[in-house]
Design goal:
Largest sheet: 6 strands, mixed
CATH class of the largest domain: Alpha Beta
Helix content: 25-40%
CATH superfamily of the largest domain: Protein tyrosine phosphatase superfamily
Distance between the termini: 59 Å
Order of helices and strands: HEEHHEEEEEEEEEEEHEEHEHHHHH
Number of helices: 10
Radius of gyration: 27 Å
Structural class: alpha/beta
Length: about 375
């Protein structure tokens, strides 16, 4: 009997505690209700492009040389961002005027994050039913939620999900051309090349103060890897044009078939070795126009990480949709067929089943160790 009474008392205490908690939540939330705000764009779990129309066309219709048809010799691939849109259904939500007609909220808070719990979410405020969001990772799940705020009450939506298409994470950086993230690629086995770690582009000799702010504060660039010969522009100076706080490394790099030449391979190994040290990240690497020496290093890094050949070629050709990458007006298909593709074919002559293994074999032939290759893959794949 004593045991039965104890159990009954526990149940009573639990019920009382539960009731008190429910009352406190009701008072705290002030009428907050769910599932009364519906996502319009993108639809729930929908895919959406954050790229502009030129880049979307380039990605969806890609064949070697397509940039010849699209380019206008300016920087064409600035990001477009996305628009979030929703509507309200407030029946019974407390969102009514005195005469019973529906009235809108005073404003809405929009929470946006790359995790379902909305930890460290960006928070936006709007009086409307849409919100523009910039600076997005590609090939990434995002989550968003809307809280409509009334006079004395709130209405909270479900957490909506979207997925950004894998196109390119590009940047608009004042005074610098041809800038984009090297990450975002799916490489098999559930792995993805990390974003926000390696950026590629043209030289930063004329970067503006706002451009510096973006590169240092928003992108967090820690290392400026300059692939030009000393004396070419500002190459070989005491420090990076981005500032003295940036680790400046100047290595005169080979391009395309130049990677075969033994006298250039020590420099090439030094470039690759820099990426085996996590303290160097995030890295911005560049040559003069961000296409040839930069494209050669990008080919080796992406190949080593397991990015498919056709995607690496697409990354290479994106440079022709920029001002600097098209400055010499060279026909795109000529560069692909006579420079890029022969470099790929040369790498395929090395041992290994997959292209990533062949690239690794080449890098080991110029002095890169297994430990350094493992370090690069460990840092850059998640």
């Amino acid at each position: 009997m004593e045991s039965t009474n104890k159990n009954r008392n526990k149940r009573v205490r639990f019920a009382a505690a539960f009731t008190a908690l429910a009352i406190l939540l009701t008072l705290f939330l002030g009428g907050c209700q769910h599932r009364q705000i519906d996502a319009i764009t993108p639809v729930r779990n929908g895919k959406i492009s954050a790229a502009n129309s030129v880049v979307s066309t380039f990605c969806k219709n890609y064949t070697p040389g397509i940039a010849d048809e699209l380019r206008d010799y300016t920087d064409m691939y600035f990001p477009a961002g996305i628009d979030l849109e929703w509507n309200y259904n407030f029946a019974g939500s407390g969102g009514k005027s005195d005469d019973g007609s529906e009235s809108g909220p005073l404003y809405a808070l929009v929470y946006f994050a790359d995790n379902k719990s909305l930890t460290d979410a960006r928070t936006y405020v709007t009086a409307g039913t849409s919100m523009h969001v910039d600076d997005l990772l590609v090939n990434t799940d995002y989550y968003w939620q809307v809280m409509a705020v009334f006079d004395g009450s709130t209405v909270l939506s479900d957490v909506f999900k979207l997925h950004t298409e894998h196109e390119f994470r590009t940047f608009k950086i004042s005074g610098v051309s041809n800038t984009r993230d090297l990450g975002g690629y799916s490489v098999g086995g559930g792995k993805v090349v990390r974003q926000g770690m390696i950026f590629r582009g043209a030289n930063v000799d004329s970067v503006s103060s706002e451009g510096k702010r973006v590169m240092l504060e928003e992108l967090g660039v820690r290392t400026d890897l300059d692939l030009r010969a000393p004396g070419e522009g500002k190459a070989g100076g005491e420090f990076s044009p981005l500032g003295k706080e940036v680790n400046y490394v100047n290595i005169s790099a080979p391009l395309y078939g130049g990677i075969k030449e033994e006298e250039k391979q020590e420099a090439l190994a030094s470039e690759i070795r820099l990426f085996a040290d996590e303290s160097n990240y995030p890295v911005y690497f560049h040559c003069a126009i961000g296409r040839d020496r930069t494209g050669t290093l990008a080919l080796l890094l992406l190949g080593l990480l397991g990015v498919p050949e056709d995607m690496i070629r697409r990354d290479y050709e994106m440079s022709f949709l920029s001002y600097s990458g098209s400055a010499d007006k060279t026909p795109v298909i000529d560069m692909v067929k006579h420079q890029f593709d022969p470099t790929v074919e040369y790498l395929k002559t090395f041992d290994g089943r997959a292209f990533k293994d062949k690239v690794a074999s080449f890098l080991k032939s110029i002095g890169i160790t297994d430990e350094e290759i493992s370090a690069i893959r460990s840092i850059m794949l998640r």
